[in-house]
Amino acid sequence: MVTIGNIVLPDAPLLLAPMEDVSDPPFRAVCKAFGADLTYSEFISSQSLVKGAIHARRKLDIFETERPVGIQLYGGDEESLAMAAAIVGVTDPSLLDINFGCPIKGVVGRGAGAGVLRDPDRMVRLTRATVRATSLPVTVKTRLGWDERSKNIVEVAERLQDAGIEALTIHGRTRCQLYKGEADWALIGAVKNNPRMRIPIFGNGDIDSAEKAVEYADRYGVDGIMVGRAAIGYPWIFREIKHLRQKGTPAPPPTVEERVEVCRMHLAGALRWNGAAQGLNEMRGRYAHYLKGLPAIQQYTRRLVRLPDADAVGALLDEIEAEYRGYVTSPEPIRLVNYHTNCAL
Known about the structure:
The chain is α/β, with parallel strands linked by helices. The chain contains 15 helices and ten strands.
């Protein structure tokens, strides 16, 4: 078992990364259904939350069926981060996560996210302020350092633990790398194998297959794996990782029926959370991902995005299922797309 405060997770848990414009409640529920053990919200600006911005408050929504789930905050000011932590506590998530890893300019420029990596002392102050402000378990997600010359994650991890966090997720790149090059898991392993560390250490970065997830977990000894971009349109990756870990053999690829069913599941969640019009709009970019690999599927996905209501979408999904019934999709390498407008860590 892996414990984070009072949260008990299975051995080698799989975590769904917090991704802006991706990790909303309907998507988290889909990933949970296929094996994600812990999910996180999209990141939330502490200042926006304190000011009562509707878009920020809405990201606090949690479906009971998706627990355990964490709410992730970012901010560069101790007072607003502490106040936001208190607000989050009222909504009763399973834990609160601080984002010290988002590399995008708009966040870094405000001294938040990966912008804090240049000042470990401030990172510690922000963490302590958050821990003091809430009774929730506090965790952190961060990177190796600001650049190649400041990969100080081993020292920083010790200091964050001393500041009161109860788990740490490390993305194996610096801020200056953004999403370029390969993630360096050796330093993640160094943190895990540091005898001073007593909290769970989760690894993140470039996990695009079950084989890589199992290999990296074993090689570097981390307590669990966080999956980000590879889960977009392919929630089966969680099932495949667990199958390989438990059975020692690759899992069969998702069937046509499963692909269509995920479209239905996600659509139902989007409609419930967003309402009819916004829910349909939210799904327009999802169908092509879920149905990828089916021959000539574009003729259907182009129609799906233009349909006026959920009943019409359901009817066309029935047609797709009937048309491709029995077709065996072959596993394809997952392409990790760089979503530059969000923190798809």
